[in-house]
Amino acid sequence: MNRALFLDRDGTILKEIEGASPETLGYLTSVKQVELIEGAAEAIAISHSIGYKNIIITNQSAIARGILTEEELNNINNKMTDLLLEQNPSAVIDDIFYSPYFKNGLVEKYAIDSPMRKPDIGMVLEAQTKHNIDISRSYMIGDAYTDIKCGVNAGLINILVKTGYGKIAYKKCLDENLKIDFIASNLLDAVQYIQRKNQ
User: Fold this and answer.
1) Which positions ≥6 away from 31 have C-beta within 8 Å?
2) d(CA 98, CA 42)
3) I want to staple 145 with a disulfide (CB 3.0 to 4.6 A). Which of 17, 40, 156, 172 is the partner?
4) Residue-range domains of the chain with CATH
5) Cα–Cα distance between 129 and 120 in angstroms, integer?
6) Residue 183 CB partners (closer than 8 Å, separation 6+)
7) Which residues are catalytic?
């Protein structure tokens, strides 16, 4: 069975929109806004070198809200993967799963309460089946409460990064007694921690 890093996208690999917060819903809606967090490409390359699949699982409720199309999302994801490979040819993303759903959305077909939306584990289960993943030896890495909650729900090892909304998420995770296995300054720090554990 394969081991995997389940990676959040915004705030973990890509920089959040300037001046955005969880309250202002600063959605990344254009390829012009795509900017890698420093060290992300190196982190993803190291992850591959030590035998992990890199799988992105990301909530994209901007689609349900009518402010982003699936085509635009694919363009953004393609730009991200291009930038990663430009910075490091070994920074390969093995798969991307996204949830376009939001119960109170404006686009009817996506306006549902879906198990594919984190903190539910639908995307993890889909990736597990597709890539034959051993959950007990795999990690969730993200900057949001929903990432850690998803990881706990799925039985993953959980790392919170301080980039993006990580500092806000840390307080909420503490308030709810969610188990965080490691707190990292960024994705590179997280992967270096995993690398040390594998030695």
Assistant:
1) 75, 76, 79
2) 23
3) 172
4) 3-197 (3.40.50.1000)
5) 16
6) 159, 160, 161, 162, 166, 170
7) 8, 10
> 56-82 b/e with 16+ CB inside 10 Å = b?
bbbbbbbbbbeebeeebbeebbebbbe
Structural contact between residues 9 and 56, judged by C-beta atoms closer than 8 angstroms: yes
On whether the CB atoms of residues 101 and 112 are closer than 8 A, the answer is yes
Q: How far apart are CA 83 and CA 32, in angstroms?
A: 12
- pLDDT band at residue 18 using 50, 70 and 90 as cut-offs: confident
What the block records as the tokens of 74 is: 């694919």
Question: CA nearest 142: which of 115, 119, 116, 175?
Answer: 119
Residue 137 pLDDT > 60: yes
3-state secondary structure of 161: strand
Query: What's the maximum distance between 2 C-alpha atoms anywhere in the chain?
Result: 49
Q: 0.85 cut: is pTM over it?
A: yes
Query: Whose structure tokens read 């890495």?
Result: 141
Q: What is the residue whose two structure tokens read 């990432």?
A: 147
* Residues in Cβ contact with 159 at an 8 Å cutoff, skipping those fewer than 6 apart: 139, 140, 141, 142, 180, 181, 182, 183, 184, 190, 193, 194
Structure tokens at 40: 């992300």
